[in-house]
Amino acid sequence: xxxxxxxxxxxxxxxxxxxxxxxxxxxxxxxxxxxxxxxxxxxxxxxxxxxxxxxxxxxxxxxxxxxxxxxxxxxxxxxxxxxx
Length: 84
What we know:
By secondary structure, the chain is an alpha+beta fold. It is 43% helix and 24% strand. The protein is built from 3 helices and 4 strands. The chain is globular. The model is unreliable at 1-10 (pLDDT under 50).
């Protein structure tokens, strides 16, 4: 199983969890912001408005890699359709 271990107080890396059909990679808001090259506040605002797929785990937001990639593909397709 890949991924980086998570400390007990704060996730320091991508967490991989076993699933029925492979591993699920989970990102924190900070990790996703870094990956997308945006501010963490932008991620929180997008999640709050329902623009980006996420789950709430206590006070934390977590983002599943596959869902985020699907969202990015869908968003790109919509943007391309609007420019044509």
